[in-house]
Amino acid sequence: MSGARGVVLVHGGAGVMRSLSGEREAAYRDGLAVAARAGREALERGEGPLAAVLAAARVFEASGAFNAGLGSCLDEEGGYGLDAALMRGRDRAAGAVGALTATYHPADVCLDLLREGRHVLLVGEGADARARRLGLPPLPAPPPEKRAAWEALRERSAARPEELGSVGRPDDEGAVADSQDTVGAVAVDGEGRVAAAVSTGGMWLKAPGRVGDSALVGAGLFACDELGAAASATGIGERMIRSATCVVACQVAAREGAARGAQAAADELEARFGPGSGGLIVVDRRGELGVAFNTRGMGRAFARVGADEVPVAVWPEDAFPVTLAP
Ligand code: ASP
2 C-alpha vs ligand 1 centroid, how far in Å? Predict the structure, then answer.
């Protein structure tokens, strides 16, 4: 990347987002900006792209306003099962957890696995044991409002049993229902080194033990310095897994840039599964950014080293100047 200017791009989930307006939308936008800034600060301190995406993930996980960490959704039995992953482009080192319940900072468990280098993915009790060993803060019992949302969703699913335990819960327009605040981040530093992160509570009313794309390298995220690209996805995880969404995005980005990489992966989802599947963010080694989604909205923000402003967008029509000047 020329000019030694790193950048961090984050997303806050793709979905219908019907209830996102007013104060809630303001808090959501604010959370995106704070996470992007936290990532940029890590780059400015010279800590590299992995530290940058981790810093953004930690902010999201602690905020409670996103479907990740403290804000995670509940499965069909009212329990938690968090998925997350981190990947470093330099050596394709990765750490991931699935169906974790012991902490609201799953990305830190991922970091421990990535550094250790023995296993890429731990799930369930094994992931929980690692979180406890690391002394990470426990995930508290769901607050009353979340319980109430869960009850309401269960009632709705009882009335429409075809939705029970399904992921995505199609609404009347066949699009993903209002629960997609999964978070992700991609970053590149001044030397063109990349990294990616993703963290989620998964899908509301999922089956206990279900693991989605967010724990899976290639589907929910990918980062590779040789390709010079990193990607992080959100949406109906089963579709990303079956499409290898983030690998596709990085391969195209290597040849045609981040914007084309994101669009190519989103086009593939659209062609195979139709509208309402989700979206993704991509960065390439030149610092070009790519964003694509086929849901009603997808929260996104970016922060460039050396630039003050942090553009934030949610809807397709929102201004979001991601491509580089030629
Ligand atoms: N992709 C996540 C999952 O399937 C959910 C999301 O992005 O909203 O678990």
Answer: 34
Tell me 217's DSSP state: B
| CATH number attached to the domain at 7-160+179-313 | 3.60.20.30
* Domain ranges, ordered by start, for the chain: 7-160+179-313
- pLDDT tens, residue by residue, 229-252: 999 999 999 999 999 999 999 999
DSSP 57: H
Is 5 buried (19+), middle (13-18) or exposed (0-12) by CB count in 10 A?
middle
Find out whether the beta carbon of 31 lies less than 6 Å from any atom of ligand 1.
no
Instruction: Return all residues near 58 (Cβ < 8 A) that are at least 6 apart.
Output: 38, 105, 107, 108
Distance 196 CA to ligand 1 centre (A): 16
Asked whether 201 lines ligand 1 (CB < 6 A), one says: no
Residue 92 to residue 113: CA distance in whole angstroms: 13
* Displacement of CA 317 from its chain's centroid (Å): 21
pLDDT, tens only, 176-214: 344 568 999 999 999 999 999 999 999 999 999 999 999
**Three-state DSSP class for residue 268:** helix
- Whether 234 is a known active-site residue: answer no
Task: Determine how β-strand 93-100 pairs with β-strand 121-123.
Answer: parallel
**pLDDT confidence bin for 25, thresholds 50/70/90:** confident
